[in-house]
Amino acid sequence: MSAIGVKRLPHGEGMPLPPRATALSAGFDLAAAIESDITIAPNQRTIVPTGLTLEIPAGYEVQVRSRSGLAAKHGVFVLNSPGTIDADYRGEVKVILFNSGDCPFVIKRGDRIAQAVPATVAIDIIFKESSELTQTERGIGGFGSSGI
User: Fold this and answer.
1) What are the residues whose beta carbons fall under 8 Å from the beta carbon of 48, sequence distance 6 or more?
2) Buried-most residue among 14, 16, 18, 71 (CB within 10 A)?
């Protein structure tokens, strides 16, 4: 079993380590480490700090994804979902939230704002220029060419 090292920043003191909601949840909940409430107006975005820095093992990334409840009930989602936290990044994990709803959305300290999903990545791949590519059944078809 691999572990992700977590360091709390001063404004993250007292916040829990990212928990899983259930034993089989893919994601770990990320919470807002803010001193005062943040209001996201409709059609606006903001960056929300988590008060955490991570040490992700080589060969992994952590994807930052929306929480389905926030998206379905309030129209609030992670703008660059999935965002990627690379294994060599040691800065604070921050979440870009966008409010696509009709009402202002208030975030309070400790609110679960996103989920972190660890995933393996191929770090031994490179891009190599080639004058010809192999043919496939799909070929150059894209943007819906394989059906609805």
Assistant:
1) 32, 34, 38, 94, 95, 96, 97, 107, 113
2) 18
13-55 tens-digit pLDDT: 999 899 999 999 999 999 999 999 999 999 999 999 999 999 9
Indicate the SS3 state at residue 44. strand
Distance CA 7, CA 137 (A): 48
Task: In whole angstroms, give the CA distance from residue 115 to residue 78.
Answer: 9
- Whether the full predicted model's pTM is greater than 0.85, yes or no, is yes
Over residues 97-118, the pLDDT tens digits come to 999 999 999 999 999 999 999 9
Neighbours of 88 (CB within 10 A): 8
Condensed to tens digits (0 to 9), the pLDDT of residues 113-148 reads 999 999 999 999 999 999 999 999 888 888 877 777
92-99 and 44-55 strand pairing? antiparallel
The CA angle 42-44-48, to the nearest 5 degrees, is 115
